[in-house]
Amino acid sequence: xxxxxxxxxxxxxxxxxxxxxxxxxxxxxxxxxxxxxxxxxxxxxxxxxxxxxxxxxxxxxxxxxxxxxxxxxxxxxxxxxxxxxxxxxxxx
Length: 92
Description:
Order of helices and strands: HH
Structural class: mainly alpha
Radius of gyration: 32 Å
InterPro entries: YqjD/ElaB (IPR010279)
Low-confidence stretches: none
Protein name: DUF883 domain-containing protein
GO molecular function, one term: ribosome binding
Keywords: Membrane, Transmembrane, Transmembrane helix
Largest sheet: none
């Protein structure tokens, strides 16, 4: 066996090892991506459910306490108005 043949065989072995490593890395990557997608779906679903609950609770609170809800809304509106007024005043 000549040095050229031996070198060619070693090169082929290295190519095969590289293919195996690349294949394993690709499989692990796809597995992690799949896991992340599932976790994202779960978190998105949980967040959506919590938002629906908050909206329902807010609606119930408003129905049960219309005067308080009106005052809270008025207070928030006044607060936002004051902040916007201050920002506009700074521009001039």
